[in-house]
Amino acid sequence: ALACGLPVVSTACNGSSAFLAPEAVLADPTDHAGLAERIEALVHGGSTARTDFNPPRGLEPYAELIRNLA
């Protein structure tokens, strides 16, 4: 969704959170109130969320793993 210019909220329980700014990541996937707050923030500040997409930030943990294996 981010690559298409859409804002995203995700949980910390999956790999997509590595590509997101911390404010777009929900620590507890059962926190429904927190999810609603994050969605509300994206609705009102979505253009900022869309411009914060940073693929290298998400790839860095994998690059570090590869460097450590070498």
Key words describing this protein structure:
mainly alpha, two-stranded parallel ribbon
Rg measurement, Å: 13 Å
Tell me the strand percentage band. Answer: 5-15%
**How would you describe the shape?**
flat
Intertermini distance: 33 Å
Describe the structure.
This protein is mainly alpha-helical and 70 residues long. The chain has one domain. Helix content is 50%, strand content 6%. The chain contains two helices and two strands; from the N terminus they run ββαα. Strands 1-2 form a two-stranded parallel sheet.
Q: Can I get a quick summary?
A:
The chain is mostly helical. It is built from 2 helices and 2 strands, in the order E-E-H-H.
Give a topology summary.
Blueprint: E1 10-11, E2 25-26, H1 32-51, H2 55-69
Parallel strand pairs: 1-2
